Amino acid sequence: NxxxxxxxxxxxxxxxxGYYAVAINLNSCQSISTPVYIKIHSLPSTxxxxxxxxxxxxxxxxxxxxxFTIGNTYQWYKNGASLIGQTDSILNVSQSGNYTLVQSDSxxxxxxxxxxxxxxxxxxxxxxxxxxTHLCYGNSVILSADSGIASTFEWFKNNSALSEYGQQxxxxxxxxxxxxxxxxxxxxxxxxxxxxxxxQLT
Length: 202
Known about the structure:
The protein is mainly beta.
């Protein structure tokens, strides 16, 4: 028997696996209890991680992954609230929030580290015309990209870049026009606007 230094109270909090017994001394006599074996069960793994960035543009997603152990159960949480039905070791995330996981085995449960996900909104990408887009020969129409401040623009005609980067585009030719709007690292394409120019009368 190996006495535990300082363990002289009527109770003892065991933190290590092993056999434990207590010796009681009274009037020069000693009585030793029957040993009790205590096994300290290891907690399930708690680490969750992402192989990709957790800050991305709307429309994308990221996988949060936990170590998979056969027989364990998994419950994911977003901002402290359980995500119904999300009980796999991998969670696909497409919304901003703080994500954690509780992993459980037959005896114990453990809470993971927290991963914050930030989803950046796409800029507004919309085209308005200052006049009809059905043009008489020799006329033109101004197409304007409606968007917020700090945006950049790139115009396309029939899916080909025009090397035009202003917020407005003067158009005098038939075609399908689209603008790409970029802001805060995210980009969006507008719906196409069809411009039709009548042929010159002879």
